Amino acid sequence: MSNVQRDDVLAALRPEDVANHLGIKGQWRGRWMRAARCAETDHGSECFALSREGNWHCHSCDKGGRDLLSLIALSEGLSTKDDFPKVLEIAAGIAGIEADSGGDMFGIGPSKPPPRARPEPPPLAPLPQRIALAKKRAAWVWERLYADRFGPQAYLKHRGLDPEFILSRETIRCTPLQIPAELRAQIEDRTSGITPELRTLWFTMGTRKGTLSIAIPVRCVTDGAMVDIRLRRVEPLEGQPKIIGMIGNVTVSPAERGKTRQLVGCYGNPHAIDSDHVVVVEGALDYLTALQVWPNAQILGAVEAGTMALVAAHAAAALAARDNHSRLTIVEQCDPPRQLKDGRVVPGAADQSINEDPNAATKVAVRLLGHPRRVGWLFCQMADTLVDGKPVKDLNDLWRVGADIRGMHRWWTDPEIAA
Amino acid sequence: MSDELLNDFGGPPEDAADEPAPADNLIPFPRMRASSKLREAWAQLVEKRNNKNGTHYKLIAAADAVEDLIRLRGMPAFSWPPAWPEIIRRVRFYPRDMVGVVGSQGGGKTSFALQAAIAAAGQGTPTVWAALELNPPEVLCRGIGNLHATHASTIRDTWPRERIEHAAGVFTDMFHFVDRVKDPAEQIAAMREAVAVAWELYRVPPLLVVDHIGKLFSNARDPNVGATQALEALRELTEEMDCMTMPLSQGSRGNQAVLTGRADVDAASDAMGVAASARSFEEDCSYVLALVLYKADDSIDLDGRAMITKARHTGLEGQVGWRFHKPGGVHSELDYLPATPSQVKADVDKAKKDKHRASPAPTPAQVRMDLNAANAGDAAAMRRVKMLEAVTRHGMLGIEVNDLRRVPGVGRGAMFHQSLQELERAGSVERYSTRVRIIARTE
Lengths: 419, 443
Hints:
The complex is a heterodimer of chains A (about 425) and B (about 450).
Chain A: H1 6-12, H2 15-22, E1 27-29, E2 32-35, E3 48-51, E4 56-58, E5 63-65, H3 68-76, H4 84-95, H5 127-143, H6 150-158, H7 163-169, E6 173-174, H8 181-188, H9 196-208, E7 213-220, E8 226-233, E9 243-244, E10 265-268, E11 277-282, H10 284-293, E12 298-302, H11 308-322, E13 327-332, E14 338-339, E15 345-346, H12 360-369, E16 375-379, E17 386-387, E18 390-391, H13 395-400, H14 405-408, E19 410-411, H15 415-418
Parallel strand pairs in A: 11-12, 11-13, 13-16
Antiparallel strand pairs in A: 1-2, 2-3, 3-4, 4-5, 6-7, 7-8, 7-10, 8-9, 10-12, 14-15, 16-19, 17-18
Chain B: H1 36-53, H2 65-74, H3 85-90, E1 99-103, H4 109-122, E2 127-131, H5 136-148, H6 152-158, H7 161-168, E3 175-178, H8 184-202, E4 207-211, H9 223-241, E5 244-250, H10 256-259, H11 278-284, E6 287-293, E7 301-311, E8 318-325, E9 330-333, H12 341-353, H13 364-393, E10 399-400, H14 401-405, H15 414-425, E11 429-432, E12 435-438
Parallel strand pairs in B: 1-5, 1-6, 2-3, 2-4, 4-5
Antiparallel strand pairs in B: 6-7, 7-8, 8-9, 10-12, 11-12
């Protein structure tokens, strides 16, 4: 087996095969699969994520990796450093690669190792029960977060927003997290490549105030009670998640045969939609930015790209039932196209979230409101403009570069969109 | 109970107060179960007779339907357009149901179904459309026209291709046409296949629209027999495929006066039988909705009523005020019942016969406006009553304005605000923060 090359195995290894081998069954949504089972154990919510490129992360165990070998190693109780040949052997078996020539004299490849035997995961509790539990947990967690305004103020200011205004429109709290020693060392190391602004922010929030993330409530669409609390980490490094949700959160009902996915919660006040103008954005930071961009509108934020169409549908249905003139604006992010390992270029994460449909949210809004010039659209893109060395991709980026955001707003029926 | 287990007042110790009650305090009442012996005996007997006769009857017991019921209950009901609150309340449209829509020729049946289908697509329900009368390009133009409140002919003649594609992109993902074939049996088979594909892809019960049902049996020697057979096949398809079916039907010639408002009906259920081949249509559909439009020459907006003549699940037969905007065929609900042409004619005639009148007799248009204003005033009074009842129910803390909006019968949009403002000015309620509360008077 020694002549099997790591790159060959990785090229032939498919995430679906690895998931099948490990007994992980989940729902593929766009390029991510979410499952309640990770490589080690079962969880109460879909906290394990596996991407088609081989990235994986278990938000409950807080373990993750950037290739499938580390996932296989974790499931087999091996170390990629110490037991790499063994891990590679198992991976080659899953991928169907033989050590010598890739097949026997009849061209038949090696037999795959049998899937790992794992007991069936316990059935999920009914959705109403899970929502009730999530509300209790969220209330419990929220009471234990810092109500200190300093941390959010520092972070919002760093993102170019007016902290006082934002905090007058949304309640934000802080996590009582200690700054890790290695991060402290990294901050203090002036040669580590961290920008001075970020170093100041980390130092101010982390060492002086003991917090490295701000907490934003996710409210239930029926009664406004918190069903989840999303933490925006200030210090994530490359490859680490920026947003962390509560364990056992429920923001959307699972997709099952015969049932449409139902929105359970989002940022803002989805239970009380009562405004002539509602704006739907994606993500925590865009939600906070939109509060400032449209001070007279009601803002709703999808917690992830995959639920944006559901939030738009919820808002559109409420507005359609309310009157005949209120308007809805959809703010779509523009994640830059990415190149996969096999050379293919695919749209960014936000663009292909729902069945690779970049306009899913706008479509449902138009279908429900059913009248021209009731649905507006804003695409967060500016050619040849960089923020922090990267292309503009979201509302906060537009705000920071001082773009005329309202001027970029387009109605769905505008001729230039149709053209 | 020993002394150390009592508290100062002779009750159970305080620290045990949060513990659950002991099991022996519960009444041991067993769950109701069917007799297993009778069940087995029934199954054996049915099997024996099936074997003897070469049949495959199941003859299930009442409780055997529970499994199916729970499965169906998990499926979503049809999402009507949110701007039609009365239709939502009265017509609960579940999978395996048929909702028949009846209207006169040019009475807005197709646009009604299109508007409903596009709104349902917004909530995740796909549509398969059996275009038996209009061809797909015509239906497409009407769908786009409905979204834009623009005449289908304008779109057909003047819109550039890019704009049509852009507008069609809103619903094309969730909207597919069934191929048209001559033979009714083959046509039903094509519909079945379309529903199966929609089920497989979208994994939710699709909406099947048959526009219109008369075309399924137009070649039949006996229209009544043909209608019965076609509708039975459609119902069978609906039940087997767990889909929601909306057959459209033209009214019978004899009942045209009802569908145009020339003949009044006291109650919506009196309009039963307006559909062509009415008997089988009304037997097979769970709900029958008759669109009554008061046609007038050169009028852009037509008033009318949506009559729910049959409501199997809700029992809420009745009439809903309706308006049809001709450009695009946009349907909207009114919160009052507009005056019918016969009411207008009666009032005009009455005024003409008045020998003592000091001014010329009013025109029909004036009478219609007066009657509609009176009806709208009655509806506004009823909205205020509903609103006041809801605010009173919530006592001194009052109710959130947004929650008040959701109370049935309080109106929407400007009507809601007007009613609330009138109550405020009358000193019946007051607003504080985002809530409304009652003003109690003690005299």
